[in-house]
């Protein structure tokens, strides 16, 4: 049973994520985070056999959950120590992932209050949709993942800084 939600000043309820053990799974590298307001779970998997450091894997899992909208603005993330214990990793691994997401402006860190998903006007829905469309298009053309990532990296590096002006969508 999840703990009672915390009350903010003024009486509103803070949105909090709780860590639960994986359902019907014996994978020790998987953690399920229950999200109160959506009655939905976010699954995050860390695999120490991969070349990517654990903090990057954790940051990537949380990042995709934020961009896909599974974690929304104002959502309180689990305490670093609690998440570290659930994943069986050092607390500094979680803190490093949280700091990476803070540097990307996806979460806000508050001493004594923990990590909270940043509130963004419009969210990341359009970005998530564009990413899924791009992946679908790459798969339709049988483009390998490495080639797609290289194209995205090059486009990102060569693009001018965001000016608030949207580029027109290419026609097919």
Any idea what the shape is?
globular
CATH architecture type of the largest domain: Orthogonal Bundle
- The assigned structural class equals alpha+beta
Order of helices and strands: EEEHHHEEHH
User: How many β strands by DSSP?
Assistant: 5
Helicity, as a percent range: 25-40%
**Residues in β-strands, percent:** 5-15%
Spatially, the strands of the biggest sheet line up as 1-2-3
**Backbone CA Rg:** 18 Å
Q: Round the mean pLDDT to the nearest integer and report it.
A: 76
Low-pLDDT stretches: 1-16
Task: List the total number of helices.
Answer: 5
Q: Can you characterise this structure?
A:
- There is one protein chain.
- The strands form 2 sheets. This protein has a 3-stranded antiparallel sheet with strand order 1-2-3, with helices on one face. A two-stranded antiparallel sheet has the order 4-5.
- The chain is α+β, with helices and mostly antiparallel strands and 172 residues long.
- The chain is globular, with a radius of gyration of 18 Å.
- It folds into 2 domains: 17-117, Winged helix-like DNA-binding domain superfamily/Winged helix DNA-binding domain (Arc Repressor Mutant, subunit A); 125-158, no CATH class.
- Residues 1-16 have low confidence and may be disordered.
- The chain has helices at residues 54-67, 80-87, 91-103, 125-140, 145-158; strands at residues 17-20, 30-35, 40-45, 107-110, 114-117.
